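Morning run. Coffee first, then this:
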Amino acid sequence: MKQRILTAVIALLILVPLIIYGKWPFIVISIVFACVGLYELMRMYNRNNGTIYELVAFLFLIGLVYPKQEATLFSWTLTTYDFILLFLVVLLGIMVLSKNAFSFDQVSFMFFATVYMGTAFHVLIETRMLGLNYLFFILFIIWATDSGAYFVGKFVGKRKLWPAISPNKTIGGALGGLILAVIIGSIFHIVYPFSLPFYSIILISLVISVVGQLGDLVASAMKRHYQIKDFGKLFPGHGGILDRLDSLLFVLIVLSIIQFI
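And here it is:
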């Protein structure tokens, strides 16, 4: 417990100023975290992909995370969608040139892992650039969901939510997380109002809470499938980047889809 608290305090002292300041330091730390997250996924996959192939993935990852919707090379303009397709073509080309030493299974996982990390952290940077209130709003609701689920589940949670994936989560805890998320989201909107009607904030709070819990289950499902306890050891007592940001990354992607950010 002491190790968890000490790690949390140190992480907050380092990360909170970077979040508040934003700009290039936040972009740099986001790129670093994205690279660590991709490394954790590759480590979980537990395959010898080859240094050259992994280097290609990290280069494309940085290109995806960087906060631009398109890039121009000479007279050739690539959108994010084009960049993702180019990455797929490169991976498939490597598979052929390596004579299947780099297999289709490895191509599929590396493509998924890189696009997932790249897209999620790209949206994270976009969210911070949109405004500090957006990022803190999302974080507060995720934290409220976790806290509500823990305390309500501890006292009234009897029926398991999804025992095959996460045996400690309960239906009562999930509902408790939803209720506290709506309360915190409403209070945040009253203190720092968005240019949205109140009912929209309630709906978005519910979406963040539900998707955040789903993101946590997705991470649990991956760890259970690959039989690992944590994604990494970057934060002693807490695990890796994906252990700490699993809900946030999933939420950011969905919020981007529904155009809240």
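The radius of gyration is 19 Å. Good start to the day.
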